[in-house]
Amino acid sequence: MKDGRRKGEWLEWSASNSIGSLEEAVAQLPAGRFSDKWIAKLKHTGGIEWKGSRIRLRLFPEEPLQYMPEWADIEVLYEDDFCLVVNKPAGMKVHPTQEGESGTLLHAVQWHLEADGQRLRPRHIHRLDEDTSGPVLLAKCEWAQSQLDAEMREKRVERIYLAFVQGRVESSKGTVNAPIGRDRHHATRRRVSQTGDPSITHYEVVDRLRSATLVRLRLETGRTHQIRVHMSYLGHPLIGDALYGGPLRGIQRQALHGERLIFPHPFTGEGIQVEAPWPEDFAALYEQFK
């Protein structure tokens, strides 16, 4: 499977032996990577071909664009035939939230793909808040999206963040297990609520600074504003996060950055780890608190 190569709409690779039937071709697919639904779909659409020991899967059909390509200065941290990870800057939405909206990460990634001659539709696997920086995982085709969505549901996509929070966090590490729901008194706020959705955040102290603490956080669930709500619930709101009581100093947004993303590759299952460098405002804030 290591010699698999994309050729246009097809993924092609050499099997371990000569293929004589559709059933033998299906048996050569990577174990656990194709559901019965997808195998049936490939069979129905003629998406499996073979000749000798060579097998082809039509995984990359040309698709109509969902968003018009727009150039933006984004950094691609990882890319292959199936997926890519982009370092989203603060102040940019992952996707439009109203009709006709432009300037989002998906618009920029569509430009990146088009400029490289890839007629594909990018699909985000998870989201970051508009004012949070860090890596975002995107799939390049419907099959890769289905595989990565399944990995998200099974909690095999690990998202690790860094945040500057107010005050001195005394415990070196801990877990916040508190359900999160909507705030009835505010359209965009969330709050800890016993009737909310189960929400779990793990944290550890990285550095105790003057009037602030740098903490590393790992999400076990992915609720809206989860880190912001949980750290405020602990009495340590994020610096710059006015919505949840954080002090407005040194940075023009909540001081939250996605440090690392770890996920199984959709085709091979190999563990992929991607790190995102600190943005300038985050690094400047660290120097200020030191």
From TrEMBL:
Name of the molecule in the record: Pseudouridine synthase
Function: Responsible for synthesis of pseudouridine from uracil.
Catalytic activity: a uridine in RNA = a pseudouridine in RNA
Lineage: Bacteria, Bacillati, Bacillota, Bacilli, Bacillales
Keyword Glycoprotein belongs to the record: no
Organism of origin: Paenibacillus cremeus
Source organism superkingdom: Bacteria
Family membership noted in the UniProt record: Belongs to the pseudouridine synthase RluA family.
Residue span(s) of domain Pseudouridine synthase RsuA/RluA-like: 84-232
EC number: 5.4.99.-
GO molecular-function term, one example from the UniProt record: catalytic activity, acting on RNA
